[in-house]
Design goal:
The complex is a heterodimer of chains A (about 400) and B (about 350).
Chain A lengths: L4 H31 L5 H6 L1 H8 L6 H13 L2 H14 L3 H10 L8 H7 L6 H9 L7 H7 L1 E3 L5 E3 L5 H33 L2 H16 L2 H12 L4 H8 L13 H25 L3 H9 L4 H29 L3 H6 L7 H11 L3 H27 L9
Antiparallel strand pairs in A: 1-2
Helix pairs in contact in A: 3-4, 5-6, 9-19, 10-11, 10-14, 10-16, 11-14, 12-14, 14-16, 15-16, 18-19
Chain B lengths: L1 H16 L6 E5 L2 H19 L3 E5 L5 H9 L6 E5 H9 L8 H4 L9 E2 L2 E14 L10 H4 L9 E4 L5 H8 L7 H5 L2 H14 L3 E4 L3 H9 L4 E5 H9 L4 E16 L7 H11 L2 H10 L3 E2 L10 H4 L12 E2 L2 H20 L1
Parallel strand pairs in B: 1-2, 1-3, 6-7, 6-8, 9-11
Antiparallel strand pairs in B: 3-9, 4-5, 5-8, 5-9, 5-10
Helix pairs in contact in B: 2-13, 4-15, 7-9
The chains are: A mainly alpha (about 400), B alpha/beta (about 350).
């Protein structure tokens, strides 16, 4: 079909408002927030004299002490406190050191000896080393921390003992995402089949039951699982009464409870795409296959299943990506070993006021999702055209 | 960059909100806690001044307040903050300075007076237990560690705050020395070693309502909990108890976000909230302590016995938020490492 020029213009005009909204309230804030992971504007601007000293690679000397006191002396108290909080993210105790030194900046004599007699902590190398590393307008300290890396005094990159915590949490997040995606597909596929092939009344009932969960608040659904799974909850009560177990099973505050609850929350996202694809498969195809001699199993495997894989991929993929961002559900039904990366992002964002770290972890999560999608998508790009469905 | 980010978010939010003059707006912690504040403070003050007021819920931290300060869209006039956030936020200019000469500091606890905040609610963190579960009532944090006498899971608040302190107390450190010990690397090691002893039995809560739930349903044998949550559960007929020995207490304060539009009215509210009469009303709804020492005289004796006040606080430890401002970043990384392994 050939479109007229006016039609193209109309399409463009129709696209403009959503595009503006997308750029304005989604893309720009996201990019800006991504920038927070390397932005060191605050520390980079507040210590100009000290930055000049650091750039000269001079040892910690009287000039450094004089530059530090001069910089601290001209900062407004709020600026000083903000800088102190950020330095404290790098070295514990730095906050109070900067605050007390800053408050007395005018009264401390010039020189390193006077500074050290004011507060002995200025004799510790780690504070000076940290200052040296954090005076540039751009910093990699958040990414280093997220990846479990540190800087050695000679400027090399080192591994920090126990610092790979966020990488381990990242891996755990991906594993939980996979488990949930696999389970939703395994449960959702037969359910979708039932929805498509049932009579109209049963179909309405099953689809209604699925959608009812869809419309219920995630908190309510998660809390319902707490009631069911807890030590003296309904399921354990039933098992004990039937004599199937002697003591209550640990069903909650562990990985089992986490995966079950997330699977339930996300099940509709897997079912609906599969239903959609199954509906488009004419029943006549199965009859044709059977009449040509294939048994029911062969018909399913060679005629039906391949046509539904697209729905399975869309449903499973959607569930996987949505599961990666979960944090309320694991917080309520998981144990300490089941918290996902989003929990820590929220913690850095809301509680610790460390948006740089939140941003670095967010980018890490985004990169992981992109990598997983690429693994799934790229082979399809190069697949022989005949293998692709029209 | 953050300004651009906050600006865009606020643009999206602000399109509907607008910047017109609005009612005096309180932000607090929701639930029973805010219900009690509404009854004891918000409504009487609004009636006295002949104004209407609005409320919002606050989840802790400084992120919201910093975003408001940076964008100039200050949607709260009063916010109930924890002390650690009050100290950090005050230093960074996120809260208005209070004029204590006008507010009347005479009968307040000394810890309630801060340049940017008026301490209002004293909250104790101690052992909650189910009276039907254990043979006898636990008495100390050392009992919390005694898995033989009181078998079963133990609940603790997620994160290192207060838990490091109580681990040291359970290990025999006197409350007065806790922060001295904790300031050394050996002290932190010692606290983690102590927590290791019961680690397989621990599960962690985020919201104050969770331990009450866990205790009532028998999910845990004991859990650290806030005293008011336990008292309210007892009032609802649940068979729970609370151990006051060596409880760790903190204080929540009223603060005014910087450039709040109803700043003057907010100051008047703080002056009102500092007086004994409304403070004596507050614990009737939720049993937390108050900041004006005269308020206790106006309370019924059986109510006073359940508050973080008087004899209950003889062995208590005041949480040192200045210590945590310095050490939280480092200890919390180690805590997360420890908790997830």
């Amino acid at each position: 079909m050939i479109r007229s020029k006016g039609g193209a213009l109309a399409t463009l005009l129709l696209l403009l408002p959503p595009l503006a909204l997308y750029v304005g309230v989604y893309l720009l804030p996201m990019l800006a927030f991504g920038g927070a992971s390397v932005d060191n504007g605050v520390l980079g601007q507040r210590f100009p004299r000290l930055a000049a000293w650091a750039a000269s690679a001079a040892p910690v000397d009287d000039a450094a002490a004089v530059a530090l006191l001069a910089d601290l002396g001209v900062l407004r108290p709020e600026e000083r406190a903000e800088a102190a909080r950020m330095l404290n993210q790098d070295q514990p105790g730095f906050r109070s050191l900067i605050m007390t030194t800053g408050n007395a900046a005018g009264t401390i004599g010039p020189g390193l000896a006077a500074l050290r007699s004011f507060d002995a902590r200025w004799a510790e190398d780690r504070f000076w080393f940290s200052l040296r590393q954090n005076l540039e307008p751009v910093t990699w300290r958040h990414f280093r921390k997220a990846l479990g890396l540190g800087l050695s005094p000679d400027g090399g990159i080192t591994r920090v003992e126990g610092g790979d915590i966020y990488l381990r949490i990242m891996l755990r997040t991906l594993v939980i995402g996979f488990e949930v995606a696999a389970l939703t597909v395994l449960i959702g596929y037969p359910l979708a089949y039932a929805v498509v092939n049932a009579g109209p009344r049963l179909r309405g009932l099953v689809l209604g039951a699925v959608l009812l969960g869809f419309w219920t608040s995630i908190l309510v659904r998660t809390t319902a699982w707490v009631v069911l799974l807890q030590t003296n909850g309904l399921i354990n009560g039933l098992l004990l009464r039937l004599g199937l177990v002697d003591a209550p099973l640990p069903l909650i505050f562990n990985r089992f409870g986490t995966v079950v609850a997330i699977t339930h929350v996300l099940l509709p996202f897997a079912i609906l795409p599969i239903v959609n694809v199954m509906r488009q498969i004419p029943a006549a195809q199965r009859d044709a296959s059977r009449s040509l001699g294939a048994g029911p199993i062969e018909t399913f495997l060679r005629v039906y299943l391949p046509q539904t894989l697209r729905g399975v991929a869309v449903g499973g993929g959607t569930v996987f990506i949505l599961a990666l961002g979960f944090y309320v559900t694991p917080a309520l039904v998981g144990g300490p070993g089941d918290q996902m990366l989003a929990y820590y992002i929220a913690d850095f964002m809301q509680k610790q006021l460390n948006w740089g770290m939140a941003s670095a972890l967010g980018i890490m999560l985004l990169a992981a999702v992109a990598a997983v999608l690429a693994l799934w998508f790229v082979p399809r790009l190069f697949a022989a055209p005949s293998a692709r469905r029209p | 960059m953050l300004k651009l980010f906050s600006g865009a978010v606020m643009l999206a939010v602000g399109l509907s909100a607008g910047a017109q003059a609005r009612d005096l707006t309180f932000a607090s912690w929701g639930g029973n806690y805010q219900d009690a504040q509404r009854a004891a403070f918000f409504k009487p003050f609004a009636a006295q001044k002949g104004i209407s007021f609005a409320e919002d819920t606050y989840l802790g931290g400084l992120a919201d307040i910093k975003a408001m300060a940076e964008t100039g869209q200050v949607k709260w006039d009063l916010v109930m903050v924890e002390r650690a956030d009050l100290i950090l936020g005050c230093d960074e200019g996120l809260f208005e300075k209070l004029d204590w000469a006008k507010l009347g500091a005479a009968d307040l606890l000394p810890t309630a007076i801060h340049p940017c905040g008026a301490g209002a609610v004293v909250v104790s963190y101690g052992i909650g237990y189910n009276k039907n579960g254990a043979g006898k009532a636990p008495q100390t944090w050392a009992d919390f560690w005694d898995l033989k006498t009181w078998p079963g899971k133990r609940g603790l608040r997620a994160g290192p705050k207060m838990n490091m302190e109580l681990a040291l107390i359970a290990d025999g450190v006197a409350p007065a020395d806790v922060y001295k010990v904790l300031a050394t690397p050996e002290g932190v090691d010692r606290a983690f070693r102590k927590l290791d002893e019961i680690k397989p039995s621990l599960q962690f809560w985020d919201a104050g309502a969770q331990p009450v739930d866990w205790l009532s349903t028998g999910n845990v044998a004991m859990s650290s909990a806030y005293n008011g949550r336990i008292s309210n559960a007892v009032a609802d007929g649940k068979p729970l108890g609370f151990v006051w020995t060596n409880n760790i207490y903190g204080m929540d304060s009223w603060a005014i976000p910087a450039k709040a539009p109803n700043k003057e009215l907010a100051m008047e509210f703080i002056a009102f909230a500092n007086t004994p009469a409304p403070q004596a009303e507050f614990p009737k709804y939720i049993p937390y302590g108050t900041s004006n020492v005269k308020a206790a005289d106006l309370m019924a004796p059986d109510l006073r016995a359940n508050l973080p006040a008087g004899v209950n606080m003889d062995t208590a430890l005041f949480m040192d938020d200045v210590f945590w401002a310095d050490h939280f970043d480092q200890i919390s990384v180690r805590w997360n490492n420890w908790a997830t392994q």
